[in-house]
Amino acid sequence: MEYNAKRRGFIKGAGAALGVAAAAGGVVALYGMKRAWEPLPSVKAAGITEVELGALKTGELMRTVFRGKPVFILKKGEGMPLNDRRDVVINGESYTIVVAICTHLGCIPAWNASLGLFRCACHGGEFDVSGVNTFGPPPKPLEIPPFRIDGTKLVLGEEGDEYKRLASLG
Ligand code: FES
Fold first, then answer.
1. Contact predicate 65/72, CB 8 Å
2. What spacing in Å lies between the alpha carbon of 63 and ligand 1's midpoint?
3. Per residue in 154-166, is it b (16+ CB within 10 Å) or e — as a string?
4. Residue 162 has what pLDDT?
5. How far apart are CA 131 and CA 25, in angstroms?
6. Spacing, Cα 96 to ligand 1 middle (Å)
7. Residue 65: CA atoms inside 13 Å, Cβ hemisphere, count?
8. In this structure, are residues 111 and 61 in contact, taking their beta carbons and an 8 Å threshold?
9. CA-CA distance, 79 to 76, in Å (whole number)?
10. Taking Cα atoms as reference points, which of 142, 152, 149 lies closest to residue 164?
């Protein structure tokens, strides 16, 4: 009799211990899952591209990649028409900053420095020095990516005042 009572007590105790262990295991597993769901710092940072523009020469085109898309940054030079609705002005210099994906069917246009335009080889579409569609099938200008200006640094992926001003102009 006494043996059975001890045995029942042992079984109850073991059951409770197992329950506590299972609950603790569940908490650990949930914590691990939460950590697994959270994006890594490198992934969080992947939405932002920082570009130093200080060394870019007048009339020079710089290429970068933002969220997997090509971006052209052109520092406008002499003889290149300005466009108040699209130019990004940094320290008095005007830049064209556009996603380099043709608004027709998505080819990557090429910069033609001698003609001062972006030309898409796929169907002959053309965009002027500010990225405005001027010829062929592209239905609208090249997209201006969200950006913020930080000194001479361009931060793609954040919406600063200059971007909001241009976006409000359409
Ligand atoms: S994809 Fe550029 S003109 Fe058609």
1. no
2. 19
3. bbbbeeeebbeeb
4. 93
5. 57
6. 20
7. 4
8. yes
9. 9
10. 149
Give the pLDDT of residue 6.
Answer: 62
Tokens, residue 17: 């211990």
Which of the residues in the chain have pLDDT under 70? 1-46
> What pLDDT sits at residue 127?
98
* Ligand 1 midpoint to CA 119 (Å): 9
* Token duo for residue 16: 């409770």
Locate 104 and state its tokens.
């027709």
Size of the chain, expressed as the number of residues it contains: 170
Q: What is the pLDDT of residue 39?
A: 47
> What would the two tokens of residue 128 be?
């002027």
Which of 99, 101, 102, 108 is the best mutation target for the ligand 1 pocket, counting ligand atoms within 8 Å of the beta carbon and taking the most?
A: 102
Which atom of ligand 1 sits closest to the CA of residue 107?
1
Tokens of 33: 């899952």
